[in-house]
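Mods, move this if it's the wrong board.
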Amino acid sequence: MNKAVRDLTRIEPVGEAMPGLVPPNIHCRTNSRRGHTNPLDRSYPPVNAVCRALHVLKVANEKSIVTVNSIHAATQIPRPTIVRLLETLMHEGYVVRDNMCGGYRVTQKVLELSAGYGGISRVIEIARPLSIGLTRQIKWPIGLGVIDGDAIEIVYWTGTISPVVHTNTVLGKRPDLFRYAMGRAYMAFCSDDERERHIARMRKDMPTEFGPQEEATFRQHLKRARSAGYAMRDPRTEPARMTTFAVPLLEKDKVAAVMSVSFFTSSVPQKDIRKAVLKPLIETRLNIEHALAFISDRPHLDASVHREYDVRL
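Not the wrong board. Structure tokens:
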């Protein structure tokens, strides 16, 4: 095994095993309901008038022109109630009466309802509950990120329910594609053309940090990551006391997102990392990819084809 591959697979030496999972100087907190995503678990019953108004607006938004009768046929809401709801939506500017066509239509103001939506992709929505389950299993926080130009943007993080969280938050941070595990996982599994574009940019933007030798070593890292199914960050990246693993989330052979787990190197003995961290991480990746395939009308996804990896440290 050459030096580049050894560097990728090396885990910093673990000191004397701790009696517990967490070093004594690390603040711990118990699990809370923060991060809970079950939409059916509500504190109060829904406001019926709001539900009806949203239902009417949804029906109106689906068609160019709606009438009271067509809304009634779609919702079974009483006609007098529909009229009052339409009048209320007209007052707020979301609906207007179109006398020429003989009905109601939505206005451009409905676009404002999506203005605050951050555009969380479908893959993140699917991966969220499984990421929460993984944190509850292994305790360490899980991050989900998507490519954003020359870096990975972390758009979801389970640190709020982790009893061993190691920072306030990583949401919105942008790990680069060169040093960090998320970036390396993306680079290892993206298309060849995209990989070469990013590497060309690195040559241009980081001439001193990304010379010919660094590029050759980096390509070896990516080759090792493709073979192993996961990537590790550069061990010289701060904070030095942490180790990070990342895996791609593939949808139709494209990297839809990346998932990572970070933990204190001294908290997980090297002999336990494969069983305690890596295997659950890869298993969760496979479950997410199965869910993506099912949602994409591909109910059969063979986990043995480029999906199962021999985890070796």
